[in-house]
Amino acid sequence: MLRRKIIYNLTEFKKTSLFCVFLSCKFKMCLMHLLVFSIFDRDNDGCITVVEWVEGLAVLLRGTLEEKMKLCFTVYDLNGDGYISKEEMFQMLKNSLLIQPADEEPDEGVKDLVEIALKKMDHDHDGKLSFTDFEKAVRDENLLLEAFGPCLPDIKSSISFEQKIFRETPK
Ligand SMILES: [Ca+2]
Ligand SMILES: [Ca+2]
């Protein structure tokens, strides 16, 4: 279902490009940001209402660690089954790598990253990440919050966005 949402959202260029500017990916249609967009669109109608926008922004800009963990986990759980599987990790890490390995088997490097992530985060050793696994790993090491790809704006982008949006209008 999420896949359909993303394909649909790709046609909504104006909305997603505005969103990507905010997340500072410079108009590039980035898979991660489309996924975040789809989380904003809670009723899955392809549009973000004012309420959805404000509620989503509140988490991105001022959310607690708990709220951010829930957002990132929901983004990473591509099929919405409550777990981040090895296949989902592979797909996201492959998309997030800036430099593709030049050797003959480029997927091997990504597979290694998946194994490293599982070793570090799969606390109950069932081969997939539940929210409990994810939460424990992130609480131990906050950098793991965006382990499978950027979901949140960096501090500089957040401050500059807030300054633009909340700037007082001259009287
Ligand atoms: Ca999943
Ligand atoms: Ca697990």
Question: TL;DR of this structure?
Answer:
GO terms for molecular function: calcium ion binding. The protein has 171 residues and is mainly α.
Number of domains: 1
CATH topology: Recoverin, domain 1
Total number of beta strands: 0
| Structure class | mainly alpha
> How many strands, which pairing sense, and closed or not: the largest β-sheet?
none
CATH superfamily: EF-hand
Protein name: EF-hand domain-containing protein
GO molecular function, one term: calcium ion binding
Domain EF-hand: 36-63, 64-99, 109-144
InterPro entries: EF-hand-dom_pair (IPR011992), EF_Hand_1_Ca_BS (IPR018247), EF_hand_dom (IPR002048), Recoverin (IPR028846)
Explain this structure.
The termini are far apart. The chain contains nine helices and no strands. The protein has helices at residues 2-10, 13-22, 31-40, 50-62, 65-76, 86-96, 106-121, 131-140, 155-165. Helix content is 60%, strand content 0%. The chain binds calcium ion (CA) (2 copies).
